[in-house]
Amino acid sequence: MPLTVRPISAEEHLRFVDRQSVDRQRAVSFLQTPAWARVKTEWRSESLGWFDGPTLVGAGLVLHRPVPKLKRYTLAYLPEGPAIDWSGDLAEWLDPLAAHLKAEGAFAIRLGPPVRTATWSAAQVKEGVASADVRRLSDLAPEHRDPAGARVVSQLRAAGWLAQSPEDGFGVGQPQYTYEIPLAGRTEADLLKGMNQLWRRNIKRAEKEGVEVTTGSDLEAFHDLYVHTAERDHFTPRPLAYFKTMVGAMSAEDPERIKLYFAHHEGDLVAATILVKVGAHAWYSYGASSTEKREVRGSNALQWAMIRDSLGAGCDVYDLRGITPTLSADDPHVGLIQFKAGTGGQAVEYAGEWDLPLRPVLYKAFDVYMKRRAR
């Protein structure tokens, strides 16, 4: 019997996410939880389920983005999802999804398979940055290539899906490259040993300086420091209301889903971060730091606290989120991957985001609109 796709309730969706975690499949991103629909209030959202007869075997959160001036039609976006079996024949899963969404008025589907295609070790990243002949991760042979990820990419391309991953790995959606620290089967001593000398020294420096790390709920304090960080580092900050919605929605779904961490030195807030956890995967989601007292290394103290807490919670992965794949020493983005590589761990390439045009004329018009807006 072919799989069918139909809307499911947020409660059904959450039970599926929880079951994935218990079964140790653990492939569900926090962007594919019902709570994320309540965070992205500017998009219409729905939870969809894949059914094998009466049994729910897959789930996905769809965010519908309307076309300017044509609000009847939408781009149906499944960030870092859906949570399905990506190891077999994808047509069995994606064809009924396409049929359902087209009937609802979607002009295209965009999704991001949560499957890895390649990984590079911290040592490889370090050697690549030091080499004049290496400019990108792709210039290095990966430590590991994932054949399952390669099959996903091949099937999507053959089925007419269009790769959306830009040159630097960042686009309007989620990054294709991340930096992750494997935790399964490791101890705190193992994790410290895997870090470079600078990271270990900074962690010790924070401890020696008396940096105090706590968890709490003072979103205003976090946001004040976050806005300060945005002004210093020249990015546009999200409003306080966004974080209130995010923390409220995720905490209501699971009290352990999201936590705020604060680093104080002699009473002064010097750094703050947000950690998100679903099943065995923990994500460093947002961070902020003061310009003053950077020498006490509050940010390193917070990272180490979140890594240890993730390990203690039984997580398999601590995810430092997006990086660009550049390794060129003269590229302004190289500092990001160097900082994260200092933790040990590995650079990870995912399959990236893919579009399936359902109404080609509308899709082309939308693509032109987005390219003009990006100029």
Automatic annotation (TrEMBL):
Coiled coil: none annotated. Keywords: Acyltransferase, Cell shape, Cell wall biogenesis/degradation, Peptidoglycan synthesis, Transferase. The keyword Glycoprotein does not apply. One of its GO terms (molecular function) is aminoacyltransferase activity. GO terms for biological process: cell wall organization; peptidoglycan biosynthetic process; regulation of cell shape. Belongs to the FemABX family. This is Vancomycin resistance protein VanK. It comes from Nocardioides terrae. The lineage of its organism: Bacteria, Bacillati, Actinomycetota, Actinomycetes, Propionibacteriales.
